[in-house]
Design a protein that fits this description.
This protein is mostly helical. It is built from 16 helices and 5 strands. The strands form 2 sheets. The chain has a 3-stranded antiparallel beta sheet with strand order 3-4-5, with no helix packed on it. Strands 1-2 form a two-stranded antiparallel sheet.
């Protein structure tokens, strides 16, 4: 029997989590999650379950009609009884609320997702005619404002990789020992992210046999579970070779992690959180005014690829975007260069002789 891949393990983990959350939701919610299973990922389903748990807890906390309820007590009649004003008040509540003695806030994106979860929930029962009303559909979704896309400039990319390669020269003691131990792994991860644009989850999910040096490609599992070959250039090739030859082959992984390409200091498959932390650690030293995450490295790659090729469909394909409009929104706009020209296009006063 072949060992489970990272993504198979994550699906099992999310499925078990979902079962736990479903035990805290009304019994009729199981029909909804069973129906959405064929068309959604396990990550999406557990996210929706968490969102709906917040909704029912909100009703118990704020609505006098349900103050004596447990979440499992709600029925479809209760769902049908709510009005659009109840949904609007819930949307307002989501902006800031207490959860287990901790203050929780939602960004525009987080607010929109939670409202989308509730809409989808209501739509399922309304379309099947088991409820007569659909108040969630009557409430306007929160407006999402465009944000400036943060990415690294070409010189910053070079500075970042140079820093990772050489910062050990100024370290001493235990910090230097740890740096030398992880240097080639960190450099390989950062070079791979910047040189292919793969998602951080795709990066940590890579197994040793997913790397094909004959064709200079890696096999990644995209969102939704589809697999795709992503090709890399010489810089990524060299960084991976160095890591495998100088670091990876000297490590004996813990049981269950033998196939993982990138390992943590605990000899387990490296986690998304660890990669996020190492990106932050290095980038903050090179570009302290930019909050750089693995997704920003992906944006950097997409931007550079589009500038070099001018082919938005190629960018969409390589990044694994299902809808090219998503790619156009983020990369084809690239208005910075045009706006920079505008700075000197209008003359306020003639130069003095």
């Amino acid at each position: 029997m072949e060992p489970l891949t990272y993504h198979e393990k994550m699906n099992i983990e999310n499925t078990l989590k979902l079962r736990g959350v479903l035990s805290e939701l009304p019994p009729f919610a199981r029909d909804y999650f069973r129906a959405m299973e064929p068309t959604t990922s396990s990550k999406t389903r557990i996210s929706y379950a968490y969102d709906l748990r917040i909704f029912f807890n909100y009703l118990i906390e704020t609505n006098p009609n349900y103050k004596s309820y447990k979440t499992s007590d709600f029925t479809l009649d209760d769902l049908d009884r709510l009005q659009s004003i109840d949904i609007e008040e819930y949307q307002e509540y989501l902006k800031v609320y207490d959860a287990s003695d901790k203050l929780v806030t939602n960004t525009e994106k987080g607010l929109a997702r939670k409202m989308s979860s509730l809409r989808s929930f209501y739509n399922y029962y309304y379309k099947r005619q088991v409820i007569k009303t659909n108040p969630a559909q009557l409430v306007s979704m929160p407006k999402l404002h465009d944000k400036a896309i943060i990415r690294l400039d070409i010189d910053e990319v070079a500075s970042l990789l140079d820093f990772i390669e050489n910062c050990g020269n100024v370290l001493t003691g235990q910090r230097k020992v740890y740096y030398e131990k992880t240097k080639y792994r960190d450099l390989a991860i950062m070079t791979l992210l910047l040189g292919t644009g793969v998602r951080v989850s795709e990066c940590v999910g890579l197994d040793l046999n997913d790397v094909d040096f004959k064709n200079n490609s890696i096999k990644v599992t995209r969102k939704g579970g589809s697999q795709m070959y992503v090709f890399f250039g010489n810089e990524v090739e060299n960084a991976l070779y160095d890591y495998l030859d100088l670091t990876r082959k000297a490590i004996t992984p813990l049981a269950g992690h033998e196939n993982a390409l990138f390992l943590s200091s605990q000899r387990k498959r490296i986690s998304v959180r660890t990669v996020e932390d190492l990106v932050k650690k290095y980038a903050s030293q090179v570009t302290p005014n930019k909050h750089i995450t693995p997704h920003k490295l992906r944006s950097t790659y997409g931007t550079n690829l589009y500038k070099e090729t001018g082919d938005i469909y190629l960018v969409a394909d390589v990044l694994g975007h299902k809808d090219v409009n998503t790619t156009k929104k983020h990369y084809a706009a690239l208005g910075d260069d045009r706006r920079r020209k505008a700075a000197s296009a209008v003359t306020l006063r003639e130069p003095k002789p």
